[in-house]
């Protein structure tokens, strides 16, 4: 394509997406008018869901292609600005859109690790990988590994690693799709997963990267508008300032004052909180006593009796639920699942430990949102309970607080590192830089990607603080008899997202009686703020756009790895274009269905799944990619050892420490959480590459010439290294 035709293409894109943005705004205004005229909330949800999926399907149909270059890399003609928007949508997954503000809401300062890690990761992309991979000019990351290190084994390991980390990531997106669809339409979560899947497939299935790219640009426009409107509204409501990124500091001060009040037993709210925390403490002690009894029984061979008694209690509770005048289907299903999971003493022990840990956390003081790496508050608690505590007791409490603070700081640093390096290693992100017309455009594209992502990331901390202020001031201390409608609405979607029980029977809501899941915060913000339901529908549509955009790219990465890198490169190099694309589409459908089924099992919260994907990518890819670009001595054996070692260590650590797999916190190394497993896998990967390379002969001269070629990308033009 000539520079003139590229310019015309760019101008045409700007015109199309300007009209599209205006049309979306008019669509929202029209729905707002219909809501005012009496259109039911459910119908607004159906319209948003149907309209957005129809839009993405339309783009997919118009972008349908049988051209290999168009299908895999969008014809390498995506302008930097639009590739930046597409990358932003690809990047702003369900975790970013739904989970980021929720994590900041729940963890405060500690949650900034995600903001810092994900943003900083693009610096690594710009410095170490994007321009070099674009100069290489092929289709996939395994393409680079196969060419750089020679032979099919590095390519195969790259394919396996790409599938693993992309699959984990896509499960998180489909999980988010299920939550959003269930909230929009009222259908069951499991059904919502598969309904939302249709929206994912219509683009990636029909038009590959070409359709995915232009859909992602459209999705970015929706999601950024949807994210900004509620937080701007809350900012104006509480501060009078429409710029929440600047204004939320004064709200944070009020949140801190409320936290101090809730932790002070001499105040009305503080006394009520203390009574609920005492109940949680009793539950903790009871669970710990049951744990000890079970462990003793397991040692003596009498554990089956205790398990039988526990199962009998659950059976009796299930019978009571079934006998109720109006049986609650969700509670019955939850109880049936609980019975099914009680498979033996180990399962019961894990359940009791989880109960004890939850009660212990709920019995503690309110965590300070603005405090960096705060301890457990052991010293403060000791002095309140025992003003005459000895110096030794005070010193022990201080040591406990310091140990907790050090653990949080270490996990913060480890998570930032994993997210940064993972960002620079995820195949579906790196593939986006194959789609630009030149190396120069790839460099510019990284800048625009960071800019568009920054708009959301800089806003998430403000949203978390403003929502927490709303909850503290309008929900805590209110009557159970007059709860806002959004509480019941979200409790009906998923009890893990919203749970509320009057533990101390005073008829008032205390913070320790309230459980809010991080995945709820953004989606519920319009309702919490008292905005019209059409805004809730728009936010849900934004979350759906975020999840779908990322899922499209991930599914395409998996399918392309199998069809291009395995089938075409290793099995049938003579395969026709039609056959290659048919196999890619078939594999994409299979992977999507398997991922949807996995998501329906609710394997973990969205943010953990995403974090795990980043750790896996950092461990498997980053050492081999970076050393492959910057160290000529890196060779076949080094790449194989490095990728296998990094991936194996990372997966082992997750398996032994994450509760979904039966892991326990006692297996953690240095107290590092499983979400940051990449902090162990990545060094193993580097060591593997270095040791393997030094123990075997240097790469051939043509491989070293390839490194020189890739290392010095032209700023003016692109070397023609197009894939066959």
Tags for this model:
globular; mainly alpha; two-stranded antiparallel ribbon; 1% strand; single chain; 724 residues; disordered C terminus; Sodium/glucose cotransporter
Provide the fold topology.
Elements lengths: L2 H34 L4 H22 L5 H6 L6 H12 L2 H14 L4 H25 L4 H9 L2 H34 L3 H51 L4 H19 L5 H33 L2 H21 L5 H13 L3 H19 L14 H8 L5 H33 L3 H4 L8 H19 L2 H15 L10 H9 L4 E3 L13 E3 L4 H8 L4 H39 L5 H24 L5 H15 L1 H9 L5 H22 L20 H17 L6 H11 L13
Antiparallel strand pairs: 1-2
Helix pairs in contact: 1-9, 1-22, 2-8, 2-9, 2-22, 4-9, 4-18, 4-22, 5-19, 5-22, 6-16, 6-18, 7-8, 8-9, 8-22, 8-23, 8-24, 8-26, 9-10, 9-19, 9-22, 9-23, 10-19, 11-14, 12-13, 15-16, 16-24, 19-21, 21-22, 22-23, 24-26, 24-27, 25-27, 26-27
Description of the structure:
The longest helix has 51 residues, at 189-239. The chain has 724 residues and is mainly α. It has a domain at 3-239 and 411-464 and 531-711: Sodium/glucose cotransporter (Up-down Bundle). The chain contains 28 helices and 2 strands. A two-stranded antiparallel ribbon has the order 1-2. The radius of gyration is 27 Å and the shape is globular. It has helices spanning 3-36, 41-62, 68-73, 80-91, 94-107, 112-136, 141-149, 152-185, 189-239, 244-262, 268-300, 303-323, 329-341, 345-363, 378-385, 391-423, 427-430, 439-457, 460-474, 485-493, 521-528, 533-571, 577-600, 606-620, 622-630, 636-657, 678-694, 701-711, and strands at 498-500, 514-516. Residues 715-724 have low confidence and may be disordered.
């Amino acid at each position: 394509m000539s520079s003139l035709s590229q310019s015309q293409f760019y101008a045409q894109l700007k015109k199309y997406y300007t009209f599209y943005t205006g049309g979306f705004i008019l669509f929202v205004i029209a729905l707002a008018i219909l809501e005012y005229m009496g259109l039911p909330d459910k119908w607004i949800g159906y319209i948003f869901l149907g309209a957005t999926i129809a839009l993405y399907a339309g783009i997919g149909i118009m972008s349908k292609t049988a051209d290999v270059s168009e299908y895999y890399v969008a014809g390498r003609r995506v302008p930097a600005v639009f590739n930046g928007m597409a990358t932003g949508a690809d990047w702003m997954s369900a975790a970013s859109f739904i989970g980021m503000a929720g994590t900041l809401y729940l963890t405060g300062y500690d949650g900034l690790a995600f903001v810092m890690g994900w943003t900083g990761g693009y610096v690594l992309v710009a410095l170490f990988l994007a321009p070099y991979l674009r100069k290489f000019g092929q289709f996939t990351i395994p393409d680079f590994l196969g060419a750089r290190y020679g032979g099919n084994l590095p390519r195969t390991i790259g394919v396996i690693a790409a599938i693993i980390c992309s699959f984990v990531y896509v499960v998180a997106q489909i999980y988010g799709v299920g939550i959003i669809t269930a909230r929009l339409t009222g259908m069951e979560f499991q059904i919502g997963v598969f309904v939302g899947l249709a929206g994912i497939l219509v683009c990636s299935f029909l038009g590959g990267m070409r359709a995915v790219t232009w859909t992602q640009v459209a999705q970015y426009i929706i999601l950024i508008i949807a994210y900004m409107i509620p937080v701007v509204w809350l900012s104006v409501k509480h501060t009078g300032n429409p710029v929440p990124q600047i204004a939320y500091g004064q709200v944070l001060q009020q949140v801190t004052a409320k936290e101090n009040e809730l932790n002070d037993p001499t105040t009305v709210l503080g006394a009520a909180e203390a009574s609920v925390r005492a109940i949680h403490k009793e539950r903790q002690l009871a669970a710990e006593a049951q744990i000890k009894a079970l462990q003793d029984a397991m040692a003596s061979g009498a554990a089956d009796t205790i398990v039988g008694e526990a199962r009998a209690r659950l059976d009796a509770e299930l019978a009571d639920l079934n006998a109720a005048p109006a049986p609650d289907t969700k509670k019955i299903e939850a109880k049936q699942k609980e019975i099914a999971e009680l498979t033996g003493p180990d399962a019961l022990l894990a359940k009791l430990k989880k109960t004890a840990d939850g009660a212990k956390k709920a019995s503690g003081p309110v965590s300070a949102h603005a405090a960096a790496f705060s301890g457990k508050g052991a010293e403060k608690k000791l002095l309140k309970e025992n003003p005459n505590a000895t110096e030794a007791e005070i010193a022990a409490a201080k040591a406990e607080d310091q140990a907790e603070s050090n653990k949080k700081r270490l996990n913060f640093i480890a998570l930032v590192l994993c997210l940064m390096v993972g960002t620079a290693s995820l195949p579906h992100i790196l593939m986006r830089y194959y789609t630009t017309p030149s190396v120069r455009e790839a460099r510019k594209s990284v800048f625009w990607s960071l800019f568009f992502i920054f708009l959301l990331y800089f806003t998430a901390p403000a949203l978390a603080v403003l929502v927490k202020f709303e909850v503290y001031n309008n929900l805590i201390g209110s009557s159970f008899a007059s709860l806002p409608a959004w509480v019941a609405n979200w409790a009906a979607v998923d009890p893990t997202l919203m749970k509320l029980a009057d533990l101390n029977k005073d008829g008032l809501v205390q913070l320790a009686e309230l459980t809010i899941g991080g995945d709820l915060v953004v989606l519920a913000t319009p309702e919490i703020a008292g905005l019209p339901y059409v805004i809730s529908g728009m936010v849900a549509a934004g979350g759906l756009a975020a999840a779908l955009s990322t899922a499209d790219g991930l599914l395409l990465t998996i399918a392309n790895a199998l069809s291009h890198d395995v089938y075409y490169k290793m099995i049938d190099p003579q395969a026709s274009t039609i056959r290659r694309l048919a196999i890619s589409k078939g594999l994409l459908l299979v992977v999507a269905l398997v991922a949807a089924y996995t998501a329906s099992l609710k394997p973990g919260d969205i943010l953990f799944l995403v974090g795990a994907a980043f750790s896996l990518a950092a461990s498997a890819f980053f050492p081999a990619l970076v050393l492959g670009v910057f160290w000529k001595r890196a060779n076949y054996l080094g790449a194989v050892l490095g990728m296998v070692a990094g991936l194996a260590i990372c997966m082992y650590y997750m398996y032994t420490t994450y509760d979904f797999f039966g892991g326990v916190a006692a297996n953690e190394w240095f107290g590092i959480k499983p979400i940051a497993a990449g902090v162990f896998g990545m060094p193993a990967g580097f060591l593997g590459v270095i040791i393997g390379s030094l123990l075997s002969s240097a790469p051939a001269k043509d491989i070293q010439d390839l490194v020189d070629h890739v290392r010095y990308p032209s700023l003016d033009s692109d070397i023609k290294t197009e894939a066959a």
